[in-house]
Every structure is written in C-alpha cells, then in structure tokens.
C-alpha cells in the first residue's frame, strides 16, 4: 500500500505573528517556518502504519514555493520515503490544493491519503473534504485513531460534538488527522543527514492537468484589537454586580 501525505509550510506555531504595515498579510520575512502541526501528525501516522507492515511507501507532497523543500526534507527525516513539490508562486487556496492533489493521486495511485484537518494559517478546514469529493472516495475527518483492519479496510475513530464516532471505510480513502492521533517523533541529526539523499521531485503547477480560478480575495489583514485587562473581584456578589454594570446580566 502507498500512502500520500499532504504537508503545508506555515509560520511556526510558537512565533508571535505580526501584520504587514500595508495590511496585505502576515509578515514572514525572517520568521521561522515549519510543517503545519496537523500535517506533521499525518506524516507521523503514515510512518507508523508503514512501520507496522501495512504500507510499502510513504510519499509526502507540498504545494508552494521552492522554500517548501525545507518542510519536505523534515518529513523525509521523520521517515517518509520520497517527496514531491508542486511549485506554485501564488496563494494556494483550498480548492486549488484539492485539485492539485487529485491530479497527483491519479498519477501516484495511493490507497490512502492523509492530511491535517486544517492549516493553522487560514484555518480553512476544507481541503480534505474537497479532495474526497473530487475523487469520489470515502472520507473520515478529525481522526483521533486509525487502524488498518485487514485487506482493503480501515477503521477510524473521529472526534465529534457528541463524543467519539468509529467508522469502517473501504480503501482507497481520504483521512484528515486531529491533534490527539499521535505525537510526532523527534528528528535526530543522523536522520536529517540521511534525508538529504532521499528523492525530492519537483514539478510546476502548470504541468498538472487542472484549471482553477481563485474564488477568494483577501481585501486586508489586521491584528485583533487588544483585549482589556481583567478585573479581580473578591466575591460572587461583586462578580454579579460587575456583570450587571456591563449589561451582561
């Protein structure tokens, strides 16, 4: 079985974000970039499935600028077998990502596609669902447990509002991963060195048989208003009076 994992280059979650002075977006110059945390969990799960003997190859894919090679090399250091970068110098919106991945699935023929449930830069939470719809494959979102259950079957426990739901799906399928699925492994120096010799293929977005017109237009970006300082009260009665003053009660 081949597993395809989609990864996105995002500003590291530990970085304090700053909006550009012209409001055109978030400042990224000189900022630490990383694999989207949810995607890193997907890479870890794919590697674990392979280590358990249920997969033969883990392919990691990213769509973006040449700088995405850094994140692909990190995924290779984790244990992925090879990487593929679809070079694209414009904003990669969810539908464009889904169509590009659909084309790659047609070329690579994976039996399982894993990706994070959402990216922490736009929080769109759309690409996995769009990809499953374009492929007409079954899907499981927000996975907190994945079990390969015999030939051609996978069981997925997913987090829903009412608790946990377990689905049984036929392969091929698309699964999006949630935070509680696993904890990604620490990458050691020998693994980083070894990853440099693993294959990383590059192709242009124009090489894929897709057409897509951007549907979203970001007019401006602004930082949230500063939150006012909290007020400490000495009793429940004071709390109630304070809330009444603000018109909450």
Give the secondary structure arrangement, pairings included:
Blueprint: E1 2-6, E2 9-11, E3 33-35, H1 37-51, E4 57-64, H2 69-78, E5 82-87, H3 94-108, E6 112-116, H4 127-135, E7 139-148, E8 153-160, E9 163-170, E10 173-177, H5 189-195, E11 200-204, H6 236-245
Parallel strand pairs: 1-4, 1-6, 4-5, 5-11, 6-10, 7-10
Antiparallel strand pairs: 2-3, 7-8, 8-9
Helix pairs in contact: 2-5, 3-4
Describe this structure in words.
- This protein has 249 residues and is α/β, with parallel strands linked by helices.
- 27% of the residues lie in helices and 27% in strands.
- The chain has six helices and eleven strands.
- Strands 9-8-7-10-6-1-4-5-11 form a nine-stranded mixed β-sheet, with helices on both faces. Strands 2-3 form a two-stranded antiparallel ribbon.
- β8 (153-160) and β9 form a beta hairpin.
- α2 (69-78) packs across α5 (189-195) and α3 packs across α4 (127-135).
- It is globular, with a radius of gyration of 21 Å.
- The model has no long low-confidence stretch (mean pLDDT 92).
- Belongs to the ETF beta-subunit/FixA family.
- Residues 23-212 form the Electron transfer flavoprotein alpha/beta-subunit N-terminal domain.
- It comes from Methylomonas subterranea.
């Amino acid at each position: 079985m081949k597993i395809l994992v989609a990864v996105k280059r995002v500003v590291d979650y530990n970085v304090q974000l700053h909006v550009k002075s012209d409001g055109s977006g978030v400042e990224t110059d000189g900022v630490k970039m990383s694999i989207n945390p949810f995607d890193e969990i997907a890479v870890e799960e794919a590697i674990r499935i392979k280590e358990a003997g249920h997969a033969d190859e883990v392919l990691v894919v990213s769509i973006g600028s040449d700088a995405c090679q850094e994140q692909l090399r990190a995924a290779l250091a984790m244990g992925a077998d090879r990487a593929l970068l679809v070079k694209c110098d414009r904003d990669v919106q969810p539908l464009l990502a889904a169509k590009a991945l659909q084309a790659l699935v047609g070329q690579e023929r994976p039996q399982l596609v894993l990706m994070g449930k959402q990216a922490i830069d736009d929080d769109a939470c759309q690409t996995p669902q769009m990809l499953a719809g374009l492929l007409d494959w079954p899907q499981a979102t927000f996975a907190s447990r994945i079990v390969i259950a015999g030939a051609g079957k996978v069981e997925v426990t997913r987090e829903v509002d009412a608790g946990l739901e377990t689905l049984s799906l036929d392969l091929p399928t698309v699964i999006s991963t949630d935070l509680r699925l696993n904890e990604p492994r620490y990458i050691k120096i020998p693994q980083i060195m070894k990853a440099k010799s693993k294959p990383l293929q590059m192709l242009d977005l124009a090489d894929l048989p897709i057409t897509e017109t951007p549907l979203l237009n970001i007019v401006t970006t602004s930082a949230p208003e500063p939150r006012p300082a909290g007020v400490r009260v000495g009793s429940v009665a004071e709390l109630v009076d304070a809330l009444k003053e603000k018109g909450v009660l």
